[in-house]
Amino acid sequence: LLASEAGAHIMHKNFETQRQCGAEVTLLEPAQLASRFPWLNVDGVALGTFGHRNEGYFDAFAMATAMARKARQQCGSGAAALRLAKRKLCWRATWSSTPPARGPPTW
Q1: Dihedrals φ, ψ of 89, to 5°?
Q2: Is it the case that residue 93 has pLDDT exceeding 50?
Q3: Which of 9, 1, 5, 13 is nearest to 43 (CA)?
Q4: What's the predicted TM-score (pTM) here?
Q5: N or C: which end of the chain has fewer CB within 10 A?
């Protein structure tokens, strides 16, 4: 991960949190980043982190697959079902407790 000067304090906090959780992470300055990753443009980069082990990952494909499966279970399949699923997701994301009187958005 990379951070600009404006986000460097957040990068430091995140780095410390990762270390406390057992991740093997290195905090790198621009010169260190350029040396380790010569193809990386470090213009405007203040800090970077590199995870060696235990820092975790996010599987976007698995998340999208799970969301599509759930949408099919709740709404069926086809274009109408996708519109309904989108409406339900936005409803949940926008109004997590009591929805406003006007109801969910329509697309």
Answers
A1: -65, -45
A2: no
A3: 5
A4: 0.50
A5: C
